[in-house]
Amino acid sequence: MTESSASKANAPLFTVIGDRINPGFKSTKALLESGDMAGIQALARRQADSGAAALDFTVGPRAKDDPDFLVEVIRAVQEAVSVPLCFDYPEHEVQKVCLETYSPDQAGGAKPIINSMAETRWHMVDLLKIRPCRVMLMASERLEDGIGKPNKTAAEIAGTAKRAALRLVREHALTPDDIIVDVSISALIADTVGLNREALAAIGLIGSDPELSGIHISGGLSNIAQQLPPKAADGSDLKLQLECAFLTLARPLGMDTVLATPWRGFQTLPEDNYVLGVFKQVLQASGTDVLRQVRKLYRK
Amino acid sequence: MIENEKELIEAIAEMREEEAFALAKGMLDRGEDPVRVLELCREAMDIVGKRFEKQEYFLPELVLAGEMLENIGAIAKPLIQEKSGGASNKLGRVLIGTVHGDLHDIGKNIVTFMLDINGFEVKDIGIDVPVAKFVEEIQDFKPAVVGLSGFLTLAFDSMKETVQAIEAAGLRDQMKIMIGGGQVDEAVRTYTGADAYGINAVAAVTLCREWIAA
Fold this sequence. Notes:
The structure holds two protein chains of two kinds. Chain A is of the alpha/beta class. Helix content of chain A is 40%, strand content 15%. In chain A, strands 9-8-5-4-3-2-1-10 form an eight-stranded parallel beta sheet. In chain A, helix 3 (37-49) packs across helix 5 (67-80), helix 7 (154-172) crosses helix 8 (195-207) and helix 10 (274-284) runs antiparallel to helix 11. Chain B is an alpha/beta fold. Chain B has two domains: 3-84, Methionine synthase domain (Methyltransferase, Methionine Synthase (B12-binding Domains), Chain A, domain 1); 93-213, Cobalamin-binding domain (Rossmann fold, 3-Layer(aba) Sandwich), CATH 3.40.50. In chain B, 60% of the residues lie in helices and 11% in strands. Chain B has helices at 3-13, 17-29, 34-53, 59-84, 106-117, 131-141, 154-168, 186-192, 201-213, and strands at 93-98, 121-124, 145-149, 176-180, 196-198. In chain B, helix 2 (17-29) runs parallel beside helix 4 (59-84), helix 3 (34-53) runs antiparallel to helix 4 (59-84) and helix 6 (131-141) packs across helix 7. Classes of the chains: A alpha/beta, B alpha/beta. The interface between A and B is medium-sized, with 31 and 26 residues.
């Protein structure tokens, strides 16, 4: 362990937004499909007890057709935990139901988080009229001449984040603390265009911009190891090590929040860690050379 | 099968890229049938695909094997066209795009690449594709399969709208529709009205083979 990571070993490395209330996890999907509210409440409590500062929340596409179910699950989760919820829907009408159902009193007065807003869905700002909210701001896409475009470079990601964050502060009275920029972490296994390299550079640009002082920077950490095998070539837990490798590089640049499973045991990695070393090589590669480097993560 | 044919298949299947290319080039330089060389490459790809399904291989092996096939194809195909007088030998047409409201393209690009190197004629019409654009492109390209990609949950509605628009244009019976990306499953397939869903690029290739090449 390096000197700096050792000195911070006892402090929480990141604000964790628990990601488990999502049918993308098979076990959660089973709970939702069977309507097992006690099981969902236990899942919520486990995340809060493991240090989650907020809980990401989605019941999947069923929310749109079955708002009563959505309301039932929100109420059940809020009965079980006192941390705020981070409503994970890009659809305005679903967010409206979520925000109208949310009880700040159950969360010690904490605001809910809208996950997410983006320049391409700017009409969602009128949700801020329902109640005071924090906002997860997607910086992975921008609006240009009325057309949505994906951001691929650090400058595009940071530029979009800055433009949209300042707009939320100036036009909608949010504080910097209300804004969490999501830089979008991509699956490394398919990252032949260097999206993660650009995401890290974007974190650096946002984190060092004095005009953006006080805003938070986040990313969906579990994306990075998607579709990779469970074990690294050195026998370690590849998914966890890769998530930690990203955090090790992102934290000094300004990333302070992660959307992740709270009991994963995140830590910064020492310089000589095998996965961190290969991850750095992957970041320097381009095209299909990325894939040749990625193979080294699980095959020596 | 003669020895150098086995060696080529093994070199591709074992990810020995430089050796595979050198073997294929040597065979072509010696005047061996380029169609046969590509058949061997496809046999190797089948081995890679099976290892992928058994989770012995992962996406990098799949794409790197695909790249080997593409590189070997680049030197073999001109020789085939010389022999056939330039006639195309594609398996069938697939139109693919990310539905409107969604800008994600990684999964779509991988599926496009895998379909292409497996012999399909693929037209990728990009991201955030409006319903009307899908219909227009289908009328023009006349694909046997349409692939609708989307990562966000809102893509499910866009997929449904796209399938409905294809139906309304009287084109639905002329093609199969597959969906993929994010959290697609049987429930989403039913909701959208698609014929099938795929969880990865190999599944997309398998579906197209079943529908077109069988």
